[in-house]
Design goal:
Blueprint: H1 3-11, E1 16-21, E2 25-31, E3 37-44, E4 48-50, E5 53-55, H2 58-80, E6 89-94, E7 100-102, H3 121-131, H4 140-149, E8 160-162, H5 164-173, E9 177-179, H6 180-183, E10 189-190, E11 195-196, H7 198-208, H8 217-220, E12 223-225, H9 236-242, E13 258-259, H10 260-267, E14 275-280, E15 284-289, E16 302-305, E17 311-317, H11 322-337, H12 344-355, E18 366-368, E19 385-387, H13 396-406, H14 409-421, E20 428-432, H15 441-450, E21 454-456, H16 463-477, H17 484-491, E22 499-501, H18 505-530
Parallel strand pairs: 1-6, 6-13, 9-12, 14-20, 20-21
Antiparallel strand pairs: 1-2, 2-3, 4-5, 7-8, 10-11, 14-15, 15-17, 16-17, 18-19, 21-22
Helix pairs in contact: 3-4, 10-16, 12-13, 15-18
């Protein structure tokens, strides 16, 4: 679409805006009435480790939301000469899971506990026994029950617990709602009713009844909505919170807020059965839409849903590119010390491409990118480690290849369960996120790691912010009875299959040999952590 058509769409309010809170960047994407991005903005931020908790402050949250919106609005003004005053629909997305408890006065009672915290092990184990269902440590219900087990005084005063995007949506609309994709990351979902599992809700209420709390679980959880349902409109107060310039008008329809897993599925057109996607950034997760339920619960596999409520198996690793990025930062420092001007995009691309010259098995090198705790392999705290033997081939290419391989290592542990034990079928796997920005590198490594074709679309760089913009567009543009899958196939992705790479047999064998070393070394790394060596 040209400048004139995009400007017309903006002026006639035929646009949709999505804003997603990633772990290191908050991004806003505006799409036109053909669902293509026409403007974007971003705000960089970083979590803090405070008193043993990974968190973001409320001040950072609102500063980031406003900064990303202002950046996008400025992009609109520069490209089209238009002051943005309204959009056709709006959606908010963020990192899934976590714990934000509020009292009746609307005050956050403890710092936001993000998905990155592995501090709910006792609660997770006890709830799994109670429900006979996997309850990962990241889930909101695990955080709530751990706070109860810890006798934290705030619990008795809880009026509302929620996730990051549902909190922002609440403040923008006054509605306490959450899309089913992230609601499934708070508490188990009943696929038939598209709501929290009532039997498990009652079991939890009975479990905590002796505590004498004034609340029941449903009283304090957001209402579950599926894609396309009415989730309220932007209020006057919400418009002022979002746009500090005061130009944005109230009354904009808002779609159900969703987690980044759900928006990743939408952004890669992976909402139908036997499709899947891998999102690889600070964390990495594979989402596979299932044809049927798994034979039994697995501690390593999260059961969540698409934004429409279809069953999804998630293999999630807390760690992906943080340690890799730190190593690239060392190369930047070296280059600057040598008096060179560093272009980070060029540096990343050069090092990533160099990795493809390395040995298929990384020359015997080994790395663990555990910047934070890793539930998939049983680590409560992060301990990045790079190791080699005297016989290893320690070259730049093998070094970089090792750091790329290990980004997918913990996730591969979970995928092995789905592919080898449950025999889950995948017709199409799509990659998105920072690991895939350098053409053909992360994509080929993922194809070799999972031994399946991997596609990357030209729009993959827009990520979940585009995904939530599409969910906002679906809210106002869907036809009567039109499913989200049909909407995406016909009105968003028609003719856009992306580029596909097949697994390389030598790469598959090499990655498998790397994983053999990876799994053998886990016990050594754990012993070092447990002994207090570092």
């Amino acid at each position: 679409m040209g400048i004139t058509e995009a400007k017309t769409a903006i002026l006639s309010n035929r646009t949709a805006l999505g804003i997603e809170f990633g772990s290191t960047r908050i991004k806003a994407v505006l799409v036109d009435d053909s669902n293509q991005p026409i403007a974007s903005g971003a705000y960089d931020w970083e979590n803090s480790y405070v008193d043993g908790i990974w968190t973001y402050s409320l001040e950072e949250i609102w500063k980031g939301l406003q900064g990303s919106y202002q950046s996008m609005a400025q992009d609109v003004k520069e490209k089209y000469g238009v002051e943005l005053k309204s959009v056709g629909a709006l959606g908010i997305s963020a990192m899934m899971h976590g714990y934000m408890p509020f009292n009746k006065e609307g005050e956050l009672m403890v710092p936001f506990r993000t998905w990155r915290n592995n501090i709910t092990g006792e609660a997770s184990e006890k709830l799994m026994d109670l429900f006979q269902y996997n309850i990962p440590q990241r889930w909101s219900i695990a955080h709530l029950y751990q706070a109860i087990l810890n006798k934290e005084p705030h619990v008795k005063d809880i009026d509302y617990i929620t996730t990051l995007e549902a909190y922002i949506h609440w403040k923008l609309t006054g509605r306490r709602v959450l899309g089913i994709g992230d609601a499934a990351g708070m508490f188990p979902i009943d696929i038939a009713t598209k709501d929290y599992n009532e039997e498990m809700v009652q079991k939890f209420d009975a479990l905590v009844a002796p505590e004498g709390f004034s609340w029941k679980l449903r009283d304090i959880m957001p209402q579950v909505l599926v894609a396309g349902q009415d989730a309220g409109t932007l209020t006057e107060e919400g418009a002022k919170l979002l746009d500090v310039s005061g130009k944005l008008k109230a009354g904009i329809p808002m779609c159900p807020p969703e987690g980044d897993a759900g928006t990743g599925m939408v952004a890669t057109n992976s909402v139908k059965q036997r499709t899947g996607n891998v999102s690889a950034g600070t964390s990495v997760f594979a989402m596979i839409v299932l044809e049927k339920e798994l034979s039994r619960p697995y501690k390593e596999i999260d059961m969540v849903t698409t934004p429409s409520g279809d069953l999804v198996a998630m293999a999630h690793s807390n760690n992906c590119t943080s340690d890799l990025n730190a190593w690239v930062g060392i190369f930047r420092e070296f280059a600057e010390a040598m008096g060179m001007e560093v272009d980070m995009n060029k540096l990343f691309g050069t090092l990533y491409r160099k990795a493809m010259e390395g040995d298929a098995d990384c020359g015997g090198l080994l790395s663990y990118c555990y910047f934070s705790g890793e539930h998939m392999t049983g680590f409560e705290e992060g301990r990045p480690l790079f190791a080699r033997s005297p016989e290893s081939k320690f070259t730049l290419a093998n070094f970089m290849r090792t750091n790329l391989y290990t980004c997918l290592g913990a996730m591969r542990v979970g995928l092995n369960i789905l592919l080898e034990q449950e025999h889950v079928k995948i017709d199409k796997l799509l990659g998105h996120g920072g690991l895939f920005k350098t053409e053909g590198v992360g994509q080929q490594i993922l194809a070799d790691a999972v031994n399946a074709p991997v596609s990357v679309m030209s729009t993959a760089g827009e990520g979940g912010a585009w995904g939530i913009a599409l969910l906002a567009s679906y809210l106002i543009n869907k036809e009567e009875g039109e499913t989200l899958g049909h909407f995406l196939d016909e009105k968003v992705f028609a003719g856009n299959e992306g580029s596909t790479l097949e697994p390389n047999p030598e790469g598959v064998e090499g990655y498998n040999r790397f994983m053999e070393r990876y799994m053998k070394g886990i016990s050594i790394e754990r012993a070092a952590v447990d002994s207090g060596i570092w």
